[in-house]
């Protein structure tokens, strides 16, 4: 499932490139892009969930919590810096906190996961 997910992700990226190159709004290309990306996320996510369920991968939640705080603060700081550098960037603190928390959660859990040895 993982290879198929990456295949659909590549198709989605190729479609996004085609949309950018053609510089036109084509509903079919946008639909193909959205469908491929959603399918890729579902396939890769279900593969990760299945490996967690089977016990092939273990998580270290306390180590992830330590990394979460650091990554959260760094990403939030980068967003604050970006809002000062690019004044046209509409900065909303609630939105920045949610985005920073999402990024920090995914990165901290993925970096602290380890494979269970057979």
What does this structure look like?
Helices cover 80% and strands 3% of the residues. The protein contains four helices and two strands, in the order H-H-E-H-H-E. It has a two-stranded antiparallel ribbon. The longest helix is centred in the middle third of the chain and has 28 residues. It is flat, with a radius of gyration of 18 Å.
In a few lines, what is going on in this structure?
The chain is mostly helical. It has 4 helices and 2 strands; from the N terminus they run H-H-E-H-H-E.
Residue share in helix: over 70%
Count the beta strands.
Answer: 2
Quote the beta fraction. under 5%
Q: How many helix segments?
A: 4
Q: Report, as a whole number of angstroms, the end-to-end distance.
A: 22 Å
Strand order of the largest sheet: 1-2
SSE pattern: HHEHHE
Class derived from helix and strand content: mainly alpha
Q: How does the major sheet shape up?
A: 2 strands, antiparallel
Mean of pLDDT: 85
Low-confidence spans: pLDDT under 50, at least 5 residues? none
From the alpha carbons, calculate the radius of gyration and give it in angstroms.
Answer: 18 Å
Q: Tell me, briefly, the overall form.
A: flat
How are the elements arranged and paired?
Elements: H1 2-22, H2 27-54, E1 57-58, H3 61-85, H4 93-112, E2 114-115
Antiparallel strand pairs: 1-2
Features:
two-stranded antiparallel sheet, 118 residues, mainly alpha, 4 helices
């Amino acid at each position: 499932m993982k290879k198929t997910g990456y295949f659909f992700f590549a198709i989605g990226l190729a479609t996004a490139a085609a949309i950018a190159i053609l510089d036109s709004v084509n509903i079919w290309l946008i639909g193909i892009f959205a469908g491929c990306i959603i399918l890729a996320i579902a396939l890769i996510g279900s593969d990760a969930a299945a490996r967690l369920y089977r016990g092939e991968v273990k998580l270290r939640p306390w180590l992830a919590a330590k990394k979460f705080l650091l990554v959260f603060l760094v990403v939030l700081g980068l967003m604050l810096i970006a809002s000062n550098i690019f004044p046209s960037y509409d900065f909303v603190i609630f939105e920045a906190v949610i985005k920073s928390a999402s990024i920090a959660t995914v990165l901290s859990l993925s970096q602290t996961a380890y494979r269970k040895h057979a």
